Amino acid sequence: MVIILARRIAQAVLVLLLVALISFAIFRFVGNPVENILGQEATVQDRNEMIERMGLNDPIPVQYARFVWDALHFDFGISYRTAEPVAELIASRLPATLELAFISALFALVAGILLGIFTAISRGRFLAGLVMTTSLVGVSLPTFLIGVLLIWLFAVELGVLPSFGRGDTVRLGFWETGLLTASGLKSLILPAITLGLYQMTLIMRLVRSEMLEVLRQDFIKFARARGLPERMVLLRHALRNTLVPVTTVAGLQLGSIVAFAIITETVFQWPGVGLMFINAVYFVDIPVMSAYLLLVGTLFVLINFIVDLLYLAIDPRIRDRNLRGGG
Amino acid sequence: MTAPLLEVSDLSVEFPQRRQRLQALDRISFTLEAGEVLGFVGESGAGKSLTGAAIMGLLEPPGRITGGRITLQGQRIDGQAESVRGRRIGMIFQDPLTSLNPLRTVGDQLVETIQLHLGMDAGAAAQRAGELLDEVGIDRGRIGAYPHEFSGGMRQRIVIALALAPEPELIIADEPTTALDVSIQAQVLALLRRLCKERGAAVILITHDMGVIAETTDRVAVLYAGRLVETGRTAEVIAAPRHPYTKGLMAATPNLDLVSVDTVLPQIPGSMPSLAALPPGCRCHPRCGDVMPVCRRTAAPFIDGVACHLYGAQTQEAG
Amino acid sequence: MTSPPVRPSEKPAGAPESAPTSVSASISASISASRLQRALASDFVYDFTRAPIAIIAGLVVLFLFLVAILAPLVAPTNPFDPASLNLMNGFTPPMQANMFTGESFVMGTDDQGRDLLSAIIYGLRVSLFVGVMSVLLAMGLGVSLGLIAGYVGGWLDNLIMRIADIQLTFPSILIAMLIFGVLRGIIPPDLRDEMAIFVLITAIGLSEWVPFARTVRATTLVEKEKEYVQAARLIGLGRHQIMWRHILPNVLGPVLVIATITLALAIIAEATLSFLGVGAPATEPSLGTLIRIGQDFLFSGEWWILTFPAITLLALALSVNLLGDWLKDTLNPRLK
């Protein structure tokens, strides 16, 4: 077991270094760092000084190592646009994104699993068909369009929910939360639904198809043949077998919520790291772009890694196969 | 004479399809005495498994029973199979690998069945589960193991234990050994037969293997294209088959005493018709060596254990 | 559905051997007729004609494509010709005469006085152009890499699949954004708007190649072992010839389904990027760009600037998705 763990960790670290490499490459080679900081009017002497100071003449691997070292110490350089340290910028905006992501993920998971089970069990009934068709719409529509439509319906036409921003927030130490105020919570609703809708439909369809697949299996037939009542068959046999593959895929999907937050944050002008990234791309603010990439990349690698381990732990067959085969 | 345990009369099963309705079983009738082992034999697709599924009420939609009655101890069960499923009629399937839930321990699945049907508490149920494992020849210490940790033969024994746990009166075994190694097949069959005889439980053994029929069953029923063609005591049917199809089956079964390396094993020419293209009259007539003009027009009624025009006239004359 | 009876044996005895030309011609004619009949009576067409959703979706997609291709002929005005614009026409509601100029527009005008219907038609054109081109790019790249990985194998295969796996760890839209951002950073500022469309195509195309590669690789691995490949090798054909001219035609089957689904994804990706402001610029807007512009006017009452492009995008996205879904469902058992 330890061997498998070590292998997985090694793989993850490798990919992390690769992500860092790409991030570094963007940081160092896209655009001209010196020009961006000093402006085009700088003298040759100033420029050379800056190059020395930033260590831009050192061999590339050294620069890369320095980049990684700095990153591990949360030093991501300075924004070209606002001249503030990128790390601070990220720190100030991260809570907003994380809260939004968390609430969305909760919504997607709970609603997705419940609806998925419902549509699998009541297959062929009208309500199930209706839900499936609506879900198809949810998957086909771009997230931003859903957000815009929700704004139009609830903010413009009905006027019941805010159309942008986080509402009032409360500061708890370094974390600014919107969960403790009424306006904060109201502001969360539309963005959370927008962000979570796509994931919810995905999870719902996944749970449904997995459950249908499981229900087709022989051991379900045998469970019924043994006289187990249908409710028992569903809950004690079908459900657990369904949720195993679902947790892995759901985990992966939910991780991507942080990436899709970019879109939702833009639609609702939500002051999170996603909006920060888009502005960085638009204004070619390289350090911010690079730092965001590094962070999100790390996040994804981590999620993949955790889900891998989860799957190993839950499914005894895979665990044993790995143990016996030595991984 | 005691009333039969199971009575199936004129059972018909249909599969409505996109452009037609396929008749998978056509007026099957047979009886089963308590404690006896009845074999159901026929080629793949003849309808053997469907009969078992119909009795259990486990037909896969869109298949459905369109006619006939099924009674257990005089009580009608067609349409209400849930009341007897597992408790009075058990069923085991062909593939032991997929019959057990891979994510739950063997003990879990046993205890669940025991508690459901026999109402014991967890401790007593676990005890009983251990006893059942003993009976089927599995070390009861492995009660906490997962299905994939057992070999195919052992898994099928666990399946048998699971089916016998509620003490049913009848077990339907659908090709229980087809997926097992030949060397294990005999063991598992012998186990099944012994345990059922000990408990006085009847068995319907569905198979396409005449050897299994000969070894394990008391009576046999031969199916072809959804119709019953012959029934009778196994020994008699094997020694003196009446229906031409049964004769062909017997001739095609290798017998070590009679064949040598040079013997050419006779085959019944042709193949069973697909349900979408059933021949008129007697369904066997395209492949029958004794075919008569009447066979092409009308099906022979099932009289005195055989459905063939060759015998219809005789028995009518005699009776 | 029987083929027309052609019985060569019923030729009159002693007929000259030249008769077979007409007989064989009629045989092949009857074969191709029955092939068409068979195709028309096949399950595929049967399923299609009985799935009204697929038909409607198909028609909508066809209609939108035609409109986009024929844009210069269909649109009432060219909204991007500055000479034709009259600022006074701005903010005209749909189907109402403008209070200054008296002109009326079916879908109203935006803040610059551009006819919205024309803007949508040209925007549709940009959206579809980017969508189709990026799919072609993804397909070209993915199929090639998949073929090479599957056929050549070894370390090259490992490398390509590793890259594919790593790329799959991240959502494709993020990768598209990344590539767009990087390319944009490299291009000098004054060229950025001009090159935006090509950068967009490159970004989206590069983010969607993996499914193509994986499927083609899997099929190639299977085809590699087949006899016609062994035969080709025996004759002495080089690797490239075998790969491109012999194996490739046989692995293209599943590619169609993936291409349709990828088209839906590409259209949505393009709309999203344009909406975010990192896609098609305002000078050559796609539907996504138009929606972004429209959102600004939502609260001030000029609802039409947002609504009509939004509905168009909705119809497009939904139809392509439905079509792709249906295609995937029907063709899947055959693929297996």
Give the key terms:
heterotrimer, A: 327 residues, mainly alpha, MetI-like fold, globular, B: 319 residues, alpha/beta, six-stranded mixed beta sheet, four-stranded antiparallel beta sheet, 11 helices, disordered C terminus
Describe this structure in words.
The complex is a heterotrimer of chains A (327), B (319) and C (336). Chain A is an all-alpha fold and 327 residues long. Chain A has a domain at 92-284: MetI-like (MetI-like fold, Orthogonal Bundle), CATH 1.10.3720.10. Chain A is built from 13 helices and two strands, in the order H-H-H-H-H-H-H-E-E-H-H-H-H-H-H. Chain A has helices spanning 2-29, 33-38, 44-53, 60-72, 86-121, 126-140, 143-157, 182-215, 218-225, 230-268, 273-282, 286-314, 316-325, and strands at residues 170-172, 175-177. Chain A has a two-stranded antiparallel ribbon with strand order 1-2. The N and C termini of chain A lie close together (8 Å). Chain B has eleven helices and ten strands. Chain B has a six-stranded mixed sheet, with helices on both faces. Chain B has a four-stranded antiparallel sheet with strand order 2-1-4-5, with helices on one face. In chain B, helix 4 packs across helix 5. In chain C, helix 5 (116-152) crosses helix 11 (239-251). Chain C has helices at 19-41, 43-49, 52-69, 71-74, 116-152, 154-169, 172-186, 192-207, 210-224, 227-235, 239-251, 253-276, 287-296, 304-335. Chain C has 336 residues and is an all-alpha fold. Chain C has a single domain (52-67, 114-335), classed as MetI-like fold (Orthogonal Bundle), CATH 1.10.3720. The chains are: A mainly alpha (327), B alpha/beta (319), C mainly alpha (336). Chains in contact: A-B, A-C. Chains A and C meet through helix 1, helix 6, helix 7, helix 10 and helix 11 of A and helix 7, helix 12, helix 13 and helix 14 of C.
Condensed summary:
The complex is a heterotrimer of chains A (327), B (319) and C (336). Helices cover 34% and strands 21% of the residues of chain B.
Oligomer: heterotrimer
- As a percent range, the share of helical residues of chain A equals over 70%
Task: Report the radius of gyration of chain B as a whole number of Å.
Answer: 21 Å
The major beta sheet of chain B can be summarized as: 6 strands, mixed
Spatial order of the strands forming the largest sheet of chain B: 6-7-8-3-9-10
> Could you tell me the strand content of chain B as a percent range?
15-25%
